[in-house]
Amino acid sequence: xxxxxxxxxxxxxxxxxxxxxxxxxxxxxxxxxxxxxxxxxxxxxxxxxxxxxxxxxxxxxxxxxxxxxxxxxxxxxxxxxxxxxxxxxxxxxxxxxxxxxxxxxxxxxxxxxxxxxxxxxxxxxxxxxxxxxxxxxxxxxxxxxxxxxxxxxxxxxxxxxxxxxxxxxxxxxxxxxxxxxxxxxxxxxxxxxxxxxxxxxxxxxxxxxxxxxxxxxxxxxxxxxxxxxxxxxxxxxxxxxxxxxxxxxxxxxxxxxxxxxxxxxxxxxxxxxxxxxxxxxxxxxxxxxxxxxxxxxxxxxxxxxxxxxxxxxxxxxxxxxxxxxxxxxxxxxxxxxxxxxxxxxx
Length: 346
Prior knowledge:
- By secondary structure, this protein is of the alpha+beta class.
- It has three domains: 23-114, Immunoglobulin-like, CATH 2.60.40; 135-196, no CATH class; 204-344, 3-Layer(aba) Sandwich (Glutaredoxin).
- It has helices at residues 3-17, 116-128, 135-148, 165-179, 184-196, 245-261, 277-286, 304-309, 333-344; strands at 25-33, 40-47, 50-58, 64-71, 75-80, 86-91, 96-101, 111-113, 234-240, 266-272, 293-295, 316-320, 326-329.
- The strands form three sheets. The protein has a five-stranded mixed sheet with strand order 11-10-9-12-13, with helices on one face. A four-stranded mixed sheet has the order 4-1-7-8, with helices on one face. A four-stranded antiparallel sheet has the order 3-2-5-6.
């Protein structure tokens, strides 16, 4: 099987995960805890915004315990005895992880095998916790760690320690984009990178003064809503996503301006970079985005919109005049409010 075929199948897998249930795969954690007899051990995971114990076990007289987790996609877990601090794990389905530790599960040194990503985390944290390692040496090591392991989610523990965060984010975004495309991990790297170095659009078709190019994407009902269909109105093309914090924080301002100017032929055309239809629709309802023009191809950062309009970070806006020409880009907050007040005062 070629690499291209593998990437395609993985993308299809992620897309299907947005709409249908997936047969879960069990991962086992077999532990050996020194002086841990009688202690309770918990495996924690964040689900729907809450940290829950997916399994727990009592350490037996031999210092042994066993935990299981139904792992759908690779994600972070925590092994702990007090539900607060513990060992950070990065688990996949069908792994058999073995851990040897002391009684508190807070030790800086522990032994782990059976989970390559978790082993990488332990490797990095053991260096970070070494008191003989200088700050400069740690930064150098963290940078090398990210470069070497850019395709593993384990790089998330090292990014903030690197000597050049922008370079590290670029390496991680590229690597995670190959192994975990269109996931919340890839999206978060995209957003972080864009917040450090927002890029101007280099797409001449989406330049100020030019006609706003079509994106030709369906609305939630599957109907294509062309931007051209809004000709004669002042249109704010708003690129956003349900998982984008800055986008969600900006939404109340867009809602306020929509209601203020909608009777003066102001329209919002929302293009979502979601890959989960359910979460997209939930965000529309929760944020009360009541305008009718919502479209998405549900491809996340793989959306055609990113190449058509040439942006790297969201929220990203394009303000279009009544003739369909681009007036200005990247307007938000008070700047957007001032520009609209200027337009509708004419």
